[in-house]
Specification:
alpha+beta, 2 domains, 8-stranded mixed beta sheet, 8 strands, globular, Glyas_Bleomycin-R_OHBP_Dase, Glyoxalase
């Protein structure tokens, strides 16, 4: 089950981008690390993630939160069966997210993710 789909915006200046979106659209800062996450007040599913340049990791265009880490694994295996191009391996990140990046047929990079349950 998909929980939400959110766009990513690459930015060389996260502070300037945050100022723009918080001033013009009244978005609030929901997360500062590992990326800058903005959300609409009263609607936490309406999010925008601002990504600084990272030469070590491909930059995704959008994220699809599948709600549960087991669903991330299922989507990963489905992508492998489909022979989709995996551009970031299946990983449990230190910030409690399980994810991988897959490229669609047009080159769009999708971050397939779910938050790990609290320990």
């Amino acid at each position: 089950m998909i929980e939400r789909i959110h766009p990513y915006v690459g930015t060389p200046d996260p502070k300037a981008s945050a100022d723009f979106y918080t001033t013009l659209f009244a978005l609030e800062i929901a997360m500062k690390s590992p990326v800058l996450g903005l959300r609409a007040p009263g609607n936490p599913a309406a999010q925008l993630l601002l990504l600084p340049p990272d030469p070590e990791t491909p930059t995704p265009h959008l994220g699809i939160d599948v709600g549960d880490p087991t669903q991330v694994d299922a989507a990963y295996h489905a992508a492998l069966r489909h022979e989709s191009k995996i551009v970031y391996p299946l990983t449990s990140e230190p910030w409690s997210v399980r994810r991988f990046f897959v490229e669609d047929p047009t080159g769009t990079i999708i971050n397939v993710l779910a938050h790990n349950p609290p320990r």
